[in-house]
Amino acid sequence: MEDKAKNKVRKAGRSYKVGREMIADMRNCDPRVIDDEQLLKRLVQEAIRTTKHHLLDIVVRKFEPIGVTVLALLAESHLSLHSYPEFGYVAVDVFTCGKNKPEPILEYLQEKFGAKEVHWEYIRRGTMKQWKSIYESEGYKRQIEVIKTLHTRVTPFQKLEVVRAKKLGICLFANDVLQMTSYDSDIYDQQILKKLGKAKSVLIVGGGDCSILKQIVKIKQLKEIYMFEQDQQVVEIARKYLGASAALRDPRLKMFYGDATDSIPYLKDKKIDYAVFDIINYPDNKARAFYNTLFEKLAAINVAAFATQAGHVTDTKEKNLILTAAKKYFKNVETEEKYIFSNGMLNFVYGNNVK
Known about the structure:
By secondary structure, this protein is α+β, with helices and mostly antiparallel strands. It contains eleven helices and 18 strands.
């Protein structure tokens, strides 16, 4: 295995308490070696001994016309391999627990089999720690290690979870989708607010985790802050677990609970300089209608400018829906990309000047 890959696997392995398993495909092996029953048995025994694992028993079966299976019972768990000499291929499975790791066994066998190509997969076995996916797409997946679950709640609108995670601090999940982290939410918020300019009044649509609100109340030039959040319970969680109490007491804040598209018309006599959207992803069958209605209502009350996050860069569907709707009502619309450690590269959309 390449050193970089090896180090990556070993680093990841430090957090497991019970066991670690590696499944490997070894290709372009020497067919004479991997079809020799006694040689394979000896190599497996040597691999176990030289890597300081402990062999309890071993079973070998030679198949006709070709192929060998080796099963080794270890004090640490087991090692198995199945050879297919006609393809120069060996399937290897190593499961170990305790301090001993499976990588050295694979490295030893790779060398002895003459394998020119190795593909492996790490499997978490019996881990005592919880892992949550924070982003997943074709060929890519990111997870975080949860230290402690602080709160869970199912509201009429969504499932909410507050966890303390390794590296990312306090995190809020809505319907299993990461919404914010105490580690880098300020970077996200600053990107949303970067075109605020000299605005005196701000409208927040969504943003129930109150992360953006906490940044907004720090801006002294603002005279009026309006916030429309559909789910009151997420704001209660933000108050208790996400440090939002002070921001929610700000005298400039006027909070409205309910559907934002129904509430926006009540601001028709107000001058809104900047609107920000921080909402959960809508299902595909509802997103188009929602964004069309949202931008129509914003244009109707003559909002001067807006900003919103528009999904991950690898998924352009949400961004395109927002752009299509925004361009119907605003003359100037642009996009930017920003890397946020907890979420990866995200799209942001900005617009101004109502048509």
